[in-house]
Amino acid sequence: MFNLTKTDIKKVVKFWDWFKSVSNDLILNPTRNDLTIQIDNHISQLGHFDWEIGPWDENSFYFAISPNLDPNKLNLTHQIIEHAPKCKGWHFLASKPPKEWQGIWKMKNEKGTEIWINSNNWKYILYAFEDKTFDMDIMIDDINGNDDTINMAIDIALTGFIGEEKFMNLIKNISIISCDEEFSEKATSIKYIAKHIESILINTIS
Length: 206
What we know:
alpha/beta; 2 domains; 4-stranded mixed beta sheet; 3-stranded mixed beta sheet; 7 helices
């Protein structure tokens, strides 16, 4: 488990001081180009992390610093968030949260070409283990990209549906299944995965 050094903490405090100074401007326009570029620069100085801004409720936003699906970095992002200031209209998170979305998004493939991903037809089967983790078989639509692009799309989908921290902690191995009628009949639509996992874990505990 990694911990922030004193030098790291100074950088973290400097970042949060800056974030607080622009927090009101970000509330008014969370996608403002000059500010997102500055966030990129600040976060890159903290380490190999990602970040995300999104709506929290009708009156506020969240700002997440992401460990990039690296479990070894999750402790670091939690420590960074512990230093976050109180900012009106903001909630600070140590990983990307699940989204209220349709599972449709635009991304770039390995060639830099923008492609649309629609996960509405994706299906999966979970295999539960005694330690409350899962393996997964997943059947997806054709994606215009190589294996790295396909795996990235699956990562984005599962992060969006169940949240990054749950994804890292619960899903251990993923196998992509070719179009198979028998699999499709047994499998569950990806949009139900969060409730499905929650139901399994509740039944396991009880």
